[in-house]
Structure formats: C-alpha cells, structure tokens
Amino acid sequence: MLQRLAVAVFLAVNSSVSAQSFSLPDAVNPGNAVKITRINPLKTQWTAEVGDKLQKGENVLNDYPRPSLVRKDWLNLNGIWEFSRSVKEDAAVAPAAEKIVVPFPPGSFLSGIKASTDRCAYRRTFTLPENWDKNCRILLHFGASDWETAVSVNGQLVGTHRGGFDPFSFDITGCIEREGSNELTVAVFDPTNRGQQPRGKQTETPSGVCYSPVTGIWQTVWLEPVPQIFIKSVKLIPDYETASVIVQADISTPEKDYEKKEYVLYGEALDGETAAAKCSGGTDGKLLMRLDKAAMKTWSPDAPNLYQMTLTLQENGQSVDQIGTYFAFRKIERVREKSGYSRIWLNGKPLFQLGVIDQGYWPDGFYTAPSDSAIRMDIRIAKSLGFNVIRKYQKVEPERWYFWCDRIGMLVWQDMPGGENKMPESQAQFQTELQRMIEALSVHPSIVLWTVFNEGAGQHFPAKYLELVRKLDPSRLVNLTSGWTDSKLGDVNVSHKFPNPEMPVQDANRASVVGVYGGLTLIPPPANCWTPDVWGYLHVPDSDTLLKRYQEMQILLQQHIAADGLAGAMFHQLTDVESECNGLTSYDRARLKIPDEAIEKLNRETIKQGSR
Q1: Domain shared by 409 and 546, yes or no
Q2: Which of 8, 172, 229, 573 is exposed most, by the fewest CB atoms within 10 A?
Q3: Which residue did the predictor score with more confidence, 170 or 293?
Q4: Cα(266)–Cα(283) distance, rounded to whole angstroms?
Q5: Residue 153 belongs to domain with CATH number
C-alpha cells in the first residue's frame, strides 16, 4: 500500500457529509418608514478572527488553497504587505506608502485600505523554510488577481497575467535565494467598468444590482516546493456507467534531456483499486482505473460520496512526486421524456433544480470571504433552507468554495462573469478566461451547469461558444444565454422575471428553467445594513409577508411543474449585497429574514413534486 498524504483537507472515502441544521434569529420588522443610519464598516461574525490572527503573527485564510491537488509542503504568503496606490502606467513598482492585508482587495474593511484604485502595487519579503529540499523547484501561486498582474522576484520580472477570476503560477526557481530574504513585488491594473474585460457585477459607481470594484490580489498567494519532475496538473474524468475514472496528469520537466526518460504514473483509490501507466517526460500521463460497479457509491445532494485518490510519479521504482486528489461518480443530463418535455436528470432520475442566486460578496472583504468557516456557512445556510442548487452569479469563487459544495452536497450552476465584449480583442479575452474557468473547475462534481452569457451582456457568437464548451466539458449542461436574449441553443431555456416566476417559452429540446425570480426586499435593522440608500425589486413590510409571498411563488412553480414540465428555478437571492436588500439573509449573515423550517418545508415540497 502506498503511504497516504496526511493532509487535513482530504476526505474520508465514500463518506457523505450532511449539512448541520441551525437557526439564525428572525429579522426585526423595521416597518416601512424606518430611517437607516449608515453603518461603516459593516462587519461579520468572522471579521475579528482576521485581526486576532494578525496580532498573533499568523497568516489569514491559511487553509490549503487547492484541494483538488494536494502536496504536504507549502508556504502561505497572505498577511501584511506594503502597498501603493495610483502607480503610473510607465513606472516601476513604486515605494510602498501603506500597509494592506492580502488577499483582501483595497477598499474592503479587512484590507486596511479605505479606497479602491485602478492601479496599485504590492511588496513583501519571504524566506524559504529550512526543511525544503535545496534542489526543489519553487512555484509561486496566485488564486486570483484582478485584472492585469505583473510579478517580479528580486527585481526580475517572472511573468504577467491577464484575468480576474482564474488561478495562475510562475516558476521562480531561477531568481530566488535559497537562504536569506527574497523580495516579491506585484503591480496590478484594473479598469473595472471602463474596460471591456470580464468583471461580473463590479462597477466604480456601485448602486442597485452593481457592486464595489475589486482590484488586485483577492485570493491566496502561496509558495510550493516541487521536485524537478512533477505532476503539474490533473484532470479526472469519472464514468458513471462503467464505474471507472480516467486520470490525465500533466508531467512537467525542466530540460529536454528529461523528455527522453520514462516514468510510471501510479494511482490508488482508497478502496484499494490501483492502476499504472508508463509515460515520458514532457507528455501527459494517462491511466484508467476501474472500480467495482456493484459497490460504487454515487454523489448527490442527499449523499455527497467522494473518492480519495493518491497519484505517484515513479522513476526506476522510486517515487519522485506524490499528490492527493479526489473524484466522484455522478451523471447530469437533459432527458426528453415521454410527456414531450425535457427535464434535468441526476444519476438516472429526474431532479428538480431548486436553487438560490449567490453573488459571492462580503461586507468586510468584498470578493474575499473573511475565513474558510464563513465560506462553509454560506453553503450550509442554503442547504438548511432546502435548496439543492446555488447559482454562482457573475463570479468565480476560490477553489475551497467548490470543495465545500462537493463535501456538503450542493449542486452548482456556474456563471462566466460578463464583460462588454464589443471589440475582437475583448472577445478573445472573454474566450480565454471562459476556457480557463472551465479547465480550473471541471474537477468538482458539484458543478453541473455552465452559464456563458447572462441577460444579453456582451453576448456574441453563441453557436461558437456552445461548441467550445461542449468540447472542453461534455459531461455538464450548458446554459448558453440566460434570460433576455435567447439564442435557442444549449440545454436549458431560461426566463428572468421579477418578482413572480415566469414560465419560459417551451422548447422540447431544452429543459425549461426560471433562471431568476423573487427579488423580495425586506430591510433588516440598521445595524445589519450596508447603507441607508436601500434598493430592491419588491418591498415587503415584515417577515410574515415575505414568507407569504415566497409561499405564493412556490405554488406558482408547482403549477408550472404540473402543467408545463418546469425543470428548475433560481430564487434571487441568498444574501443582501451592499445597497440591494433582496437577500434571505442580511448582508452580514447575522439575520435570516424567514424562519428556516418554513422555507425548507416549502422548498422540499417543490423539489419532490418536480422530481417525480
């Protein structure tokens, strides 16, 4: 038996994780004439944890950032960095004038920087741990930085990256000091809504349904030692029908001489199944692992069973690299039934997709959650309310968010963040970032659908993108054009309407889904509000009225299920976001506006009826 990597992030094989039930206090009814005094800053129950860690000299967000490919050694570079605003376009990294807490974006409370900026620079020093192999290669990883990022180490430019939502890395082996201090500098430019790049809901003038801009580093920065020959990335392709999994490993080698050598890629699932395949340096290692079909445990919201796997790269019988990963068996498909309607099936059975919109914003960290437990709680709130889907709306999350959806058992509809896409170069950038998003996240079984364009924003060449997404990932459904402008392509036909759900025009070749409905606005107490300038679609005076309106909407959904074959619906939305108070919880996640038992019962009735 291979020795297992003792990393806490790993899961128990075949174990399911169920959401723990909990209750938040009901919102106090403020009435229609309430005057809200601005609360600045608006904090969460996790805000103080960040300050406590910094005072103790600990790193913030210190959980392993890449659960799909785990090594035992890594160094977190989050924490206090030097920071400069308004760096000129043609200037080198400016001398640091302020301090910022990475990875919280400037302008957020947790960053320590009061205002956002379109150009900024970061600086810090680091020393490699003494116990790292002196002959290893050193990789510098960024979870995400918005938008154009230039990185230098010890005065040498190691690379640039364009993209606000995808992870990127640089091999910095050739420019670091093995002993002593190293200097890391990062320069960032982000035009936000003055540019055409993918940006989602960000704007320099936030109000209503558009929110604060996020510039610069907003996910974990970290170092990783790797051997000279190492597993750079892994793609796992489980086959639900045959209980097998194809493992494709990208093998990285530093020199051409290594490409002449042969290696063995050895995989082991925790249940004892193994597979091995020969590969050469500079090529992909590929192996097929078959498990016992009769004993196969599938992944679903009710039973999120995950399989742990260890991959070892061997040379002459000796291990040169070893990583841990995981996978799951689940099948998502659109099925045209005898009724003539198309519906969404999971693991061979219809499952009504009843979801909630999640913008992924935090009052203290903007795009960046204050802690891993905060990420986990958001998902558990949705789970406890009886939803089986979260539609991640116009944002891509850190990988740990999807990891927790995998573990907790929450389906995900993943949006590609929108942009203007008016020029050929911006369209090319959109395509590049879309492809990166799919490649980075396709390992996660919780994701069952990709949304390419939302509400006509930046929509171009839909047929081309359908072909691209199908080629990149044939295992998931595609919501090509969600709401407003229908391309009549893809797997789902989606309507967007407030407040009541509106049945989309029926299409036998696509599943009919309400992509957005709700927008019910209950203003929480002043202490839980971001601003006195509250905005919403349909204001309700109290929790009882909110619950009544929600119940009426579920009845409408159930009628559409029975009469029209409705396959899914996404309620708007999980939390308040800045001035938009359409959430089921307040922006600080301190108050639930509807009793959780009541909404859970309604949701489960809708799912049950829609899954027959």
Answers
A1: yes
A2: 8
A3: 170
A4: 15
A5: 2.60.120.260
Structural domain includes residue 15: no
User: What pLDDT digit, counting tens, does each position of 300-323 carry?
Assistant: 999 999 988 888 888 888 899 999
Contact 17, 409 (CB under 8 A): yes
Other Cβ atoms less than 10 A from the Cβ of 37: the count is: 10
Same domain (yes/no): 93, 185:
yes
**CB–CB of 570/582 below 8 Å?**
no
Q: Considering only CA atoms, which of 482, 302, 521 is closest in space to residue 392? A: 482
Residues 188 and 285 in one domain: no
Amino acid at 326: Y
Number of CB atoms found within 10 A of residue 163's CB: 21
* Separation of alpha carbons 101 and 78, rounded Å: 7
DSSP 363-410: TTTBTS-S-HHHHHHHHHHHHHTT--EEEE-S----HHHHHHHHHHT-
Decide if 55 is inside a domain. Answer: no
Which CATH number covers residue 302? 2.60.40.10
| CA neighbor of 106 nearest in space, from 8, 218, 204 | 218
Q: How many whole angstroms separate alpha carbon 490 and alpha carbon 453? A: 11
Residue that terminates a domain, selected from 271, 300, 327: 327
- Which residue, among 181, 209, 202, 288, has the nearest Cα to 243 in the 3D structure? 288
H-helix or E-strand containing 493?
strand 492-496
CA distance 40 to 201: 21
Residue 356, Cβ density class (10 Å: 0-12 exposed, 13-18 middle, ≥19 buried): buried
pLDDT for the residue numbered 457 = 86
SS3 at position 431:
helix
Q: What are 330-373's pLDDT values in tens digits? A: 999 999 999 999 999 999 999 999 999 999 999 999 999 999 99
CA 107/CA 101 separation, integer angstroms: 11
pLDDT at 14 over 50: no
Total domains, the chain: 3
Residue 242 tokens, joined? 């045959």
Q: Minimal CA–CA distance to 600: which of 71, 22, 44?
A: 22
CATH number of the domain encompassing residue 432: 3.20.20.80
Query: Cβ neighbours of residue 524 under 8 Å, at least 6 residues apart?
Result: 27, 28, 30, 576, 581, 586, 591, 593
Range of lowest pLDDT (22-36, 430-444, 592-606): 22-36
Range of the domain at 458: 332-610
CA distance 437 to 417: 10
State which of 183, 205, 226 marks the end of a domain: 226
Output Rg (C-alpha) for the chain, integer angstroms. Answer: 24
Main-chain dihedrals φ then ψ at residue 307, nearest 5 degrees: -105, 130
Q: Which residues, at least 6 apart from 608, have a Cβ–Cβ distance to it below 8 Å?
A: none
Q: Would residue 388 count as lying in a domain?
A: yes
129 domain-assigned:
yes
pTM for this one? Answer: 0.91
The answer on 478 and 536 residing in a single domain is: yes
175 and 82 in a common domain: yes
